[in-house]
Amino acid sequence: MTGTGTDGGASDTGTADAPVVLGGVVKTFGRVRALDGLDLEIRRGEVHGFLGPNGAGKSTTVRLLLGLARADAGRLRVLGGDPWRDAVLLHRRMAYVPGDVSLWPGLSGGEVLDLLARLHGGVNRTRRAELVERFELDTTRRSRGYSKGNRQKVALVAALASDAELLVLDEPTSGLDPLMEQVFRQAVAHEAARGRTVLLSSHVLSEVEVLCDRVSIIRAGRVIESGTLAELRHLTRTAVTVELGGVPPAAAAADLQAVPGVHDVAVDGVRVRFDADPAGLTAAVHLLGRWPVTALQASPPTLEQLFLRHYAGADPARSPARPAVGAS
Amino acid sequence: MTTSRVGVATDRPPARRAPDAAGAGRLVRLQLRQERWALPAWVAVLVLTAVSTVSAIRGLYPGAAERAALAAGIAADPSLVVLTGRVATTSVGGLTSWRLGVLLSVAAGVMGLVTVVRRTRGDEDAGRGDLLVAAGAGRAAATVAALAVAGAAALAVGLLTAAGLVSQGLPVTGAVGLAGSVAGSALVFAGVAAVTGQLSGSGRAAVGSAVTVLAACFALRALADTVAGLGWLNQVSPLGWPAVVQPFGADRWWDLVRYPATAAVLALVAVAVSRRRDVGVGLLPPRPGPAGTRVLAGRWSLSLRLLRGPGVGTVVGMAALGALAGSVGADPAGLLQSTPAVEDLLRRIGGPGGLVPAYLATMGAMVGLFVAAQAVAAVLALRREETAGRWSLLLPQPLSRVRMLVLHLAAALLWSALALAAGGASMGAVLAGRTGRGGLLGDALAATVVQFPAVLVMAAVAALLVGAMPVASGAAWLAWGAAVVLGQLGGLLQLPGWVTGLSPFAHVPRLPAVAMSWTGPIGLLVLAVAVVVLAAVGLRRRDAG
Ligand SMILES: Nc1ncnc2c1ncn2[C@@H]1O[C@H](COP(=O)(O)OP(=O)(O)OP(=O)(O)O)[C@@H](O)[C@H]1O
Ligand SMILES: [Mg+2]
């Protein structure tokens, strides 16, 4: 665990301790290329958000991490081991919550919890009782009769009450009500504070924003962006709105359109709006400096815009673009 | 209660329209597509078995005198009478009807019940029922469609079997009677399954109840054929109706009407219930469970627990079958009447060693086949756990796949061993009680327990499919069906040794009719271990879930 490794790859410095390191991972299902050269690193002690559109490959990645499926190519390190070969050893130190929890219809929730606890080995009973109470779980109900959210709570309680150092959560809150979602957030924050590492795949952006230290965005089987939210914001465009005294907005818009790095210029009455990526921002500000600016507003994109951009990627048809010049 | 009754009353559709079955036509097409591999396979196996049996009987027993001698031998062998009934006519057709009437009725009945449960409660358990009903299908539509699909399969079996029998030169009247009985049995047990599917809490439980009804019908039939004065029971049991119709004998065609009439009544009951029942829930209410467990100490006991229902069912069922075999067969008075000629024939059919040991050996093999079915089903339950997504909760635990497989196999086989012992013990105890010969208890136990290595091989084959070819794991039933056909027909048809030897049961010593020989059982054990190793290798290499 503490060995720095003899493989001596310079790029690996600082990542020797990372609980999850994937490089160039490929996974195909017949002709479908679910993962296509995926790189992912999760650092110790962080809550790592895993985002991407439907079918991007999040669940496939998770299944590879758990050794439920085998990668066709690429390097996979989970807690210092090979997730396929060392699955059993690694699983003592991992816990998993699937998005769609299927329980044994004839067993009660309490029986499932006991079963999973004994299979896993290490479990904190007081912690479990506390979680059962906080999630308001009726453990005497048979699984057949559980609602979707309650099935999910069973899996969540089992995972959170274990002493696993890596929690792998694949859309763990897709069935929870807002109150339970709150309990979930507190519980994950608590676990992270205790030093556990969490991989959280989710479509709930607010949850990711609150909980995650870093996020990775996956699209079509590749991680296209990875970093802290601040870094991701920095990488993306700033939305700018200006009011110009005296200059016809249409003319200003035409000039702005010509600046490299400025996009989606639009005229809205007396205002001109545009998006500028980091490279284009300086030039755009220089240009604005030549005009009498009466009002200026510059804002980083909202998280939602950020993700929508990334999800839709380079495909303009899918991006929520504003009407371009002349299109109004 | 009152409100719901009012609701039902006001919601009841006018008698003419049947919106509860709305969309059944579309569902028929969907279900035919879902069953596009299974049903043709069933039909082919049933028809081919019929055709090959006729040609074999004609080839092996061409003369009337040979057939009469065969019939005399059969009448003197209680084990054959228990399993297949009495010979009514000694023509080729009559012997075919004796050999196939019960066997194919049981097989066709299983086809009907499995198909109906799979396409009704099976789809509901998987959550598809909700989608279909929400999309506009009536609540009874799936049941109606499944009955139609099973009916179409029954019709195909009937027409093709009749054509096959006629093509072998048998008279048309008898061929229609026999084929009609087989097809009718498929209809009746499709109806039974439609009803159990409404009552039970899950598809598995529905299959269990329907199989129990089938077994009870078989027991009634066996009693009718073996106990003097109980012959009327054949009128009550659909599996006794071939003896009522008497194909190639009296040819009482009009008695074929019993089948569709019974099926229609059952279908009406099922449809009536399904209009009122919640989708995905049986009529019998669920009970709450314990708040926790000390007993489910881990992997091994989870498998034991998951297999508990069918396991207990098989143990009880084998005890009942054993008691039946012990009470109806081997009538001590009848045993004294056997002549050298009859014993010679029996040697051909059942092997040497006298009547009672031969009887025990045959019944032991029968128990072995049933228990092998339990073992195959239990092993395939592991695959069902996988498709239901429950491996995703187990395998992320520190539990290796191989361990999971081996522990599941062990749990399945523990139930198998108990069922074998229960069958032998109850058969032996009843026989010993009747004859006062205590040694029969041990003999009967030996006859069933010695089947264990063959059961093990069947379970291992199922495990191999689950491990290495999960998509085709249902093919384990083909292997089991082949073992049944080879075991039931191989001796009579004098198939070459290498063909009958394909069945693991052919390598089980016929205890207590012969002395114990260890080569067969040890060979089977080695084979089973090798197959399980292959299964483990396959399971380790593939994606899970
Ligand atoms: N067993 C399988 N067989 C065939 N294709 C599969 C299989 N599992 C996943 N795929 C394909 O792999 C791709 C990635 O699927 P995956 O489930 O990983 O997506 P996801 O990012 O989790 O999506 P979602 O947000 O909808 O959960 C999809 O195109 C999917 O169709
Ligand atoms: Mg997913």
UniProtKB/TrEMBL annotation, chain A:
> Which UniProt keywords are given for this protein, alphabetically ordered?
Antibiotic resistance, ATP-binding, Nucleotide-binding, Transport
Please tell me one Gene Ontology term that the record gives under cellular component.
Answer: plasma membrane
The UniProt entry lists membrane topology as: Peripheral membrane protein
Asked whether the UniProt record includes Ribosomal protein among its keywords, one would answer no
Which InterPro entries does this UniProt record tie to the protein? AAA+_ATPase, ABC_transporter-like_ATP-bd, ABC_transporter-like_CS, ABC_transporter_ATP-binding, P-loop_NTPase
Superkingdom is Bacteria
One short Pfam name that applies is: ABC_tran
Q: Which GO terms describe its molecular function?
A: ATP binding; ATP hydrolysis activity
The residues covered by the ABC transporter domain are: 20-245
Major place of residence: membrane
Localization recorded for this chain is:
Cell membrane
- Family according to the record: Belongs to the ABC transporter superfamily.
Name of the protein this chain belongs to: ABC transporter ATP-binding protein
Q: What is the organism of origin for this protein?
A: Nakamurella endophytica
